[in-house]
Amino acid sequence: MTRLADTQSLILSAGAQRPDNIAMPLPKGLHGAAAKKVVTMMVGRGWLEEVEANLRRGEPLWRETGDGHGTTLVVTDTGLLAIGIEPVVVKTVVAIREQAAKAATLKPPTQRTGTKQAQIIAMLQRPEGATVAEMVTATGWLAHTVRGPISGALKKKLGLSVATEKVEGRGTGAMVEFG
Asked: What is the end-to-end Cα distance of the chain in Å, rounded?
């Protein structure tokens, strides 16, 4: 592992914990000529990279380049290795965080009432469940049209657990299981 000054270690460690490994803002008290000297040296060693800042996302600026554009500093894979962090680990953690945030914002699918799909679900929720033939009779659909929503809408979209079994004298039946 590379020997780093405290300031360098602080900049790289803070950047590794931020989304997209952004190294800004720099530590308190580090500004002006001292900040420029440290950053220039770290860019030269490949630990930091100057990239165009996305002002719409509110990324902090390192310096302005004119015309309303600016740059920010990003910790590189070499910088992560310098502080003993595998770049793959950081990318995996970021992907997990993004996936969790996306899952938290997704609206769970809801069941519509008064539809044939709701009628099928109600039939499947009965203690004895329902056979395909019974659902065909109730909905007026063909057998393949009944089976489609069971595997698609009920299992995949609504996440319901549907169990099927063959009952002697009744045929193949199904029922919804709630866990």
From this structure: 50
Cβ neighbours of residue 156 under 8 Å, at least 6 residues apart? Answer: none
Q: Residue ranges per domain, the chain?
A: 6-104, 116-177
Cβ atoms of 115 and 104 closer than 8 Å: no
Question: pLDDT for 27-64, tens place per residue?
Answer: 998 889 999 999 999 999 999 999 988 877 778 888 88
Is CATH 1.10.10 the classification given to domain 116-177?
Answer: yes
6-104 shares its CATH topology with 116-177: yes
- The length of the chain, given as a count of residues: 179
Whether the Cβ atoms of residue 70 and residue 61 lie closer than 8 Å to each other: yes
The architecture of the domain spanning 6-104 is Orthogonal Bundle (1.10)
Q: Tell me the pLDDT tens digit for each residue of 92-141.
A: 777 777 777 777 676 666 777 888 888 888 888 888 888 888 889 999 99
Q: Nearest Cα to 73, choosing from 30, 117, 127, 130?
A: 30
